[in-house]
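F.,

This is the one I mentioned.
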């Protein structure tokens, strides 16, 4: 998130406690849109915070580590949990985006192929 928004990479890992967010302006269809990007803690003890952070969201970006099979396998539960806690109108049409991060790591360490990720996205209604 920090690298995407601030173009700075930190070699020090800092686990998210609760939630953190950054904002970034992007162009979408010739309009400037301000994205508020939330990083919510993956630990189960923080899941109850989701209601406060997810309500009113216009899109949900699910991120997994291509070198960690468990992170990919939890996408479904994160997606379901988001829909439960956000309670969007028309949940079957709510926009999701899936991003596989850490693609700059050694190819030999990759546990989730692009083909597998694309198949999962297609099974969920062609998530980009």
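My design for it:
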């Amino acid at each position: 998130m920090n690298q995407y928004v601030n173009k700075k990479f930190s070699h020090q890992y800092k686990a998210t406690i609760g939630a953190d967010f950054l904002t970034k302006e992007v162009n979408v269809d010739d309009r400037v849109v301000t994205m508020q990007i939330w990083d919510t803690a993956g630990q189960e003890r923080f899941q109850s915070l989701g209601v406060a952070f997810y309500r009113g969201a216009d899109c949900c970006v699910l991120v997994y580590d291509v070198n960690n099979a468990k992170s990919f396998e939890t996408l479904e539960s994160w997606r379901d949990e988001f829909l439960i806690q956000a309670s969007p109108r028309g949940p079957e049409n709510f926009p999701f985006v899936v991003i596989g991060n850490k693609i700059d790591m050694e190819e030999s360490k990759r546990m989730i192929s692009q083909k597998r990720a694309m198949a999962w996205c297609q099974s969920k209604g062609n998530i980009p």
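The chain is about 30% helix and 25% strand.

Talk soon.
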